[in-house]
Every structure is written in structure tokens, then in C-alpha cells.
Design a protein that fits this description.
By secondary structure, this protein is an alpha+beta fold. The protein has seven helices and seven strands, in the order αααααββββαβαββ. Helices cover 45% and strands 19% of the residues. It is elongated. The chain starts with a helix and ends with a strand.
Amino acid sequence: MYFLTKTKPVLIAFFVLLCSFQSYGQKTDLMDSLSYSVGIILGQNLKQQGLTELEGESLKQGLLDVLEGNELKINMDEANKTLQEYMAGKNLAKWEKNIEAEKNFLAENRKKEGVEELDSGIQYKIISEGDGPIPSANDQITAHYHGMLIDGRVFDSSVNRGEPATFPVNGVILGWQEILQKMPVGSKWKVFIPSSLGYGERGAGDMIDPYSMLIFEIELLEIK
């Protein structure tokens, strides 16, 4: 866990300081300070992770059961699963607006003239059709592309950089992998990629939030 790695240096420092004290009274005072310090560090890290609705007595009991070697009411595997499921649900709720925006966009977009939809949910529109070979998963290709979000903001563009990109087909996001294996060389398509085939719940960089649908104009130039 993140907060354990963050607190380790602090705990070591306190331990060294504790060993330097001789009198019982001094040790007791320091242990009170140490205990409180560990508590606020733990609380701060829990707050940063969004865990602000915990039940205090249960949290205290869990800590004591581990520290005192008591039988755990929930084993560690179950505890980790519970935490992961809670955080996943919390993250999902936070980005619900992106999920809804994607759903509405794709529903309207599939009605537009020239838009085709694959079983995976990817939609595309052929701007121009090439007559060259179609790449396979193990090929390396060169392409020009222009990547946008639903609101039209450009997050990446080889076109703007003035230099096409070369990369392996199986080395990019799933949406690209699927669509590239349908495009003949020389084609230019506009592609609408659901977040599940893009960066999903993680997002990417400063601009691509979790559950963001991606829009690309892709021009497949050659298979290397």
C-alpha cells in the first residue's frame, strides 16, 4: 500500500530516536508522540486516497488486531479485494460524466451517414480508401494521425508535429490494433474508439481522463 511505503522512513527515524532515550517517563512521552504521529500520517495518506468515510472503531480494531497478533475477522486477501472493489466503484462514480458522454456520443454518431460500427463498439468513417495491403498484428506501420477528445481538444497529433509515426501494430491501444488490421495502406479513416479500447479507467497524461472516448483521423502510409 502507498501509505505504508510513505511512512517507513518516518517510523525508522522515530525508532532510532526512541532507542536514545533512557528513562521510562521519557520513553512513554515519546511513544505517545510516536503513536499520534503515525496516526496523523496514516490519516493524511488515507485522505489523499479518498478514504474519508471509514468507520473509526472498525479501523482502530483492524489496526490493533494486526499489531497485537489477534485472529483477523477478515483475511488479507478479502481485505485487499474489498479495498480494490471500493476504490474501483468510487473511481467509476467520479468519472460517470465521461461514461455518459461516450454513450450519448456513440448513440448519435452511429446514425450519421457513412459511419460504420464494429462488434467491439468501434465506429469509423472512411474519408478516403486506399488499395494497398492490410497490416497484420505483427507488422510495423507508418501513419499520420490526429487525436481528439469528444469536446474537440487535440491531445496528440503527428500531423501537427509534421512527422508521421512508426510503430508495431500490436504495440498500441486495443482500438488502434483492431482498426489498423482493417485498413488498406493509403486509406484515411476517422475512428471513434470507446474508452474500454483506449486508456480505460486509468486515463493517460494530463488531458485524457479516465473513461474518455478517443477520436482519431488515421492515415495509413505504409507497412515497413
